[in-house]
Amino acid sequence: MPTAILSDDLQQFIGHEPEPTGWMTIDQSRINAFADCTGDHQFIHVDPEAARKTPFGSTIAHGFLTLSLLSHFAEQLQIGIDGMRMAVNYGLDRVRFINPVRVNQRVRVRARVMDIVEKAPGQFQVKLEMTMEIQGEEKPALIAEWLLMQFTGD
Question: Which of 49, 58, 114, 128 has the most Cβ atoms closer than 10 angstroms to its Cβ?
Answer without folding.
Answer: 128
